[in-house]
UniProtKB/TrEMBL annotation:
NCBIfam families: HAD-SF-IA-v1 (TIGR01549), PhnX-like (TIGR03351). Keywords: Hydrolase. GO terms for cellular component: cytosol. One of its GO terms (biological process) is DNA repair. This is Phosphonatase-like hydrolase. Pfam families: HAD_2 (PF13419). InterPro entries: HAD-like_hydrolase_sf, HAD-like_sf, HAD-SF_hydro_IA, HAD_2, HAD_sf, PGP-like_dom2, PhnX-like. The keyword Hydrolase applies. GO terms for molecular function: phosphoglycolate phosphatase activity. It comes from the Bacteria.
């Protein structure tokens, strides 16, 4: 099984989610930068991301304020997605089709809630059962990244007993940590999204790639 993150890994939305998260936080008077948002929030469930971003600035924020930011974020994101240009990352569909030919399960997992993730799938015309085998979101598990729960949930869904039969691919350090915590054979960083090569490297991934198709030879191992 291959478990892929969505935004920045298989979906190209030009960091719209993190730009919107940045906007929501700034609207409440907290002067964090987009770089702060990407560094401390990438890959995480979005309420958790807000808390991590604000904690990184040494701000102590009331939980009710975080809840308000999160609600604003969801509203702003719904508005943004109505006009945003969303596309597949380069070679994403070719990658999915190559995995299907090898009889490898394809799972998308994400720190988005179910509504946001399904909206993305609809815009891309990707369907569970045709293009991918499953979609696992932050709403499906009790604990989110870097905990391994989403990957373990997917493994259980398809009767996969060992992480040695799983590869995780993501564009953030927290994606890599998630794969490591699930015992995945490969925890692969990809440079098409939120984090730089240097940021990915600090998470000690098994590999770093620039394109999804570069993963295929690794799976032959």
């Amino acid at each position: 099984m291959v478990v892929c993150d969505m935004a920045g890994t298989t979906v190209d939305e030009d960091n719209l989610v993190y730009k919107t998260l940045h906007r929501a936080i700034n609207r409440h008077g907290y002067a964090v930068s987009l770089e702060d948002v990407l560094a401390h929030g990438a890959g995480k469930e979005k309420k958790q991301a807000i808390e991590s971003i604000l904690t990184s600035t040494a701000e102590k924020v009331d939980p009710s304020v975080i809840e308000l930011m999160f609600r604003d974020f969801l509203q702003l994101l719904d508005q943004a997605y109505q006009t945003a240009a969303i596309s597949a990352q380069d070679n994403a569909l070719d990658f999915f089709q190559a995995l299907q030919k090898k009889n490898i399960r394809i799972v998308l997992n994400t720190g988005y809630n179910k509504h946001t993730a399904e909206t993305l799938l609809q815009q891309l015309d990707w369907k569970v059962g045709r293009d991918i085998d499953a979609l696992i979101t932050a709403d499906d598990v009790a604990r989110n990244r870097p905990h391994p729960d989403m990957i373990l949930f997917a493994m259980d869904q398809f009767g996969i007993e060992s992480g040695q039969a799983v590869a995780k691919i993501g564009d953030s350090a927290v994606d890599i940590a998630e794969g490591q915590n699930a015992g995945c054979r490969f925890s692969i960083g990809i440079t098409t999204g939120a984090h730089t090569v240097a940021q990915l490297s600090r998470a000690n991934p098994s590999h770093i790639v620039d394109n999804l198709l570069e993963v295929l030879p690794l799976l032959e191992q």
